[in-house]
Specification:
The chain is mainly alpha-helical. The chain is built from 29 helices and no strands. Helices cover 62% and strands 0% of the residues. α7 packs parallel to α9 and α28 runs antiparallel to α29.
């Protein structure tokens, strides 16, 4: 057999747009990445559910399965795809029909469920590596469906080499594909740390998590510095990467240097705050240098500009020191000493001045962060929240925060404000069994932010509760029922019982109906 005659051709497999074409268009339009939201609208995206139900994207599914669950193996799919690869790689003239079947069969399975077993199958069958690489590139370059492209990247990772670097970086900049591209880079590139670093800087969400996890133990000074200042940040949870940044980046050693720059100080605060929260990865109790690093961060704040980011770090660490939990590894005296240090630092007037300054302007970009910080600082926020709500009445976080800090008289005024600002006539739109994932549910969420706080204010907000019991979102109807159930019987008028009785008669959710009936029985 003449190996020079074996080739796959460059004809498209079908008439749909390829992922490679999409990535090239985004690269030309926006540069190397990170790319804006439009890049994540992929060629094979399904339409949104007509009922507003949950649609978990496959990038989220891959992230969850790769971190918290093991994907269920699909032995049948592995065998079928391996058979197609076998036929194509060992025939003299690969048939276009078989190549099309390979694309279609790859599209019909979960790549994460077959990746490892498929590579093992190709090796057990001793298939020619150069041809499997070519088949992998064909799937990656011509694939019009995500799992086809992912399986192509898996094969390139198993049989490719440094020639595949540009393709892997380009496709890997799509967060949907980063996991598969970064594994392939690790397996194929002689400078794998730098290759992974290049891809990590191009992505921001699950892709950043997948990439940075492959930098654990890295010894490159530039990469370590980046990990401490920016590399741990991602759009999912900084807690996934905080420990890697602290340990691989050498946080404690960096903080004791004489020239701690602002970016490092900010990164240290965010890393320590993430470690303080705990989970889903290693946390403060796992970090050997946690105690001196926390102490040094508090020292460095002295004389440095007060910012909301640094206040977030200060509050995050102080929260941990007040309740380190059972996992704390340090003597209680050391914890107490450090806690006093943080409390003294927080008592400095500049932090309250900072927060109140941001809250004074309802259009301030830092308004939300300041509102969050106002709680632990015990600062008044209701007047400022009202000013913000007059501008943006659908801001659920502001409703929730304001009522959380309100007195009874303030809560009453806030409920009157909600009756005026929220489109209540449009929110008696149920009952239903829908989720509130889209922007069209912003008003429903705002109403929920109010109603979910009313359990603490007996007799207040009854018009809002009445509407909530007839809303399309199950969670909101439960919040309304829960608020009434938390009130003493004297605060619940007879008409409210009638509202719940009518709601229970048509309630589609079994658990919510049971809670409504339990409330009626208790009264």
């Amino acid at each position: 057999m003449n190996p020079g005659m074996w080739k796959l051709g460059d004809d498209p497999v079908d008439d749909r747009p390829t992922f490679l074409a999409h990535a090239l268009a985004m690269s030309l339009r926006h540069g190397p990445g990170p790319w804006p939201e439009e890049a994540h609208t992929l060629p094979d995206d399904p339409p949104p559910p007509s009922d507003g139900g949950p649609l978990i994207s496959s990038v989220v599914r891959d992230g969850i399965e790769s971190h918290h669950f093991r994907a269920t193996p699909d032995a049948g799919a592995v065998t079928e795809i391996a058979d197609l690869l076998d036929r194509l790689a060992t025939t003299r003239r690969p048939a276009r029909e078989d190549l099309s079947r390979l694309h279609d069969r790859s599209a019909g399975t979960s790549a994460i469920a077959v990746a490892d077993d498929l590579v093992e199958q190709t090796r057990l069958r001793r298939l020619p590596g150069d041809r499997i690489r070519a088949l992998g590139r064909h799937l990656a370059e011509h694939g019009t469906r995500r799992d086809t492209v992912k399986i192509g990247l898996v094969l390139v990772g198993a049989y490719g080499d440094q020639r595949d670097r540009d393709l892997l970086l380009l496709l890997g900049t799509l967060e949907e594909l980063t996991l598969y591209a970064v594994v392939a880079l690790v397996r194929t590139q002689p400078d794998r740390q730098r290759a992974v670093y290049e891809l990590a800087r191009r992505v921001e969400g699950w892709g950043r998590i997948h990439a940075v996890e492959r930098l654990k133990g890295c010894d490159d000074p530039e990469i370590k510095a980046w990990l401490l200042r920016d590399g741990f940040r991602n759009g999912i949870m900084n807690e996934y990467l905080a420990y890697i940044a602290a340990t691989t980046g050498g946080l404690w050693r960096a903080l004791v240097e004489s020239d701690v720059d602002d970016a490092l100080l900010d990164g240290a605060g965010d890393i320590l705050a993430a470690l303080a929260l705990g989970g889903p990865a290693e946390d403060m109790s796992d970090y050997d240098d946690a105690l001196p690093a926390m102490g040094r961060f508090a020292e460095l704040l002295a004389g440095r500009q007060a910012t909301l980011r640094r206040l977030h770090g200060l509050l995050g660490v102080l929260g941990y020191l007040r309740d380190p939990g059972d996992g704390a590894r340090w003597p209680s005296d050391d914890i107490a000493r450090l806690r006093r240090s943080y409390q003294d630092r927080l008592a400095e007037p500049r932090w309250s001045d900072l927060v109140l300054g941001h809250l004074a302007d309802p259009r301030d970009p830092g308004f939300h962060d300041a509102l969050w910080a106002a709680g632990p600082l015990e600062l008044p926020v209701v007047p400022q929240a009202v000013a913000r709500l007059e501008i943006d009445p659908l801001d659920g976080f502001v409703w929730w925060s304001a009522l959380g800090a309100a007195t009874s008289s303030e809560a009453e005024r806030l409920c009157v404000l909600a009756e005026r600002l929220l489109p209540l006539s449009d929110l008696a739109n149920g009952p239903g069994d829908v989720y509130d994932l889209g922007e069209e549910y912003a008003a429903d969420r705002a109403l929920e932010s109010v109603v979910s706080r009313l359990d603490a204010f007996p007799g207040i907000g009854l018009p809002l509760i009445r509407v909530a019991l007839r809303n399309r979102i199950t969670r909101l109807r439960r919040a309304a029922t829960g608020a009434l159930a938390a009130w003493p019987a004297s605060a619940v008028p007879d008409e409210a019982g009638a509202w719940v009785r009518r709601a229970a008669a048509i309630e589609p959710d079994e658990q919510t109906r049971a809670e409504m009936l339990a409330f009626l029985v208790s009264r």
